[in-house]
Amino acid sequence: MKLTLDTHLLVRLTTQDDPGQEALALQLLKKATLIAVPTPVLCEWVWVLLRGYRHTQAQAAHAVRTLLQVRQVVCHTPAVLAGLALLQAGGDFADGVIAFEGGLLGGAEFVSFDRQAVELPKGQKRKARLLGAPPSSGQRQGLGGE
Question: How many distinct structural domains can be found in the chain?
Answer without folding.
Answer: 1
